[in-house]
Amino acid sequence: MSTAYVVVTVLAAVMVGFSAVSVFLRAKWVVEPMADYGVPLSWLPLLGAAKAAGAAGLLVGLLVPAIGVAAGIGLALYFTGAVVTVIRARWYAHIPFPLLYAAPVVGALALGFTA
Fold first, then answer.
1. Which residue ranges does UniProt annotate as crossing the membrane (predicted)?
2. pTM of the prediction?
């Protein structure tokens, strides 16, 4: 296991965990754009739980690689869905935000496969 893999994986887990907490706390800067995108507020607990599970899965994946791969793939799909949601809402200037969270997840997946 390389140092780069561990650092990028922990960074991805921290970023996604922060995002999950922001959803659970219904931070204004998270909730308002989601409402603008047409995401029902009733979905927030499930979306936060998916992010939290993914962040935990990335960390567990440092010890059990199959779990980390599953979590990474799940999070990559989650953030792909987020990008699609932003595009469908025609908020093109907001596309970088889900990509910012997706980048370390994809990096962790790539480094995990090369390790």
1. 6-25, 66-87, 94-113
2. 0.91
Please name the helix (run of DSSP H) or strand (run of DSSP E) that holds residue 107, with its range, or none.
helix 96-114
Q: Taking the C-alpha atoms of 91, 96, 98 and 104 in order, what is their torsion angle to the nearest 10 degrees? A: 170
Statement: residue 39 has pLDDT above 80: yes
Tokens read off for 62:
């440092």
| Cβ atoms of residues 76 and 99 within 8 Å | no
Give the whole-angstrom CA distance, residue 115 versus residue 113. Answer: 6
pLDDT at 112 (0 to 100): 87
Kindly write down the DSSP assignment for every residue of 42-70, as one continuous string.
Answer: GGHHHHHHHHHHHHHHHHHTTTSHHHHHH
Main-chain phi, psi angles of 40, to 5 degrees: -65, 140
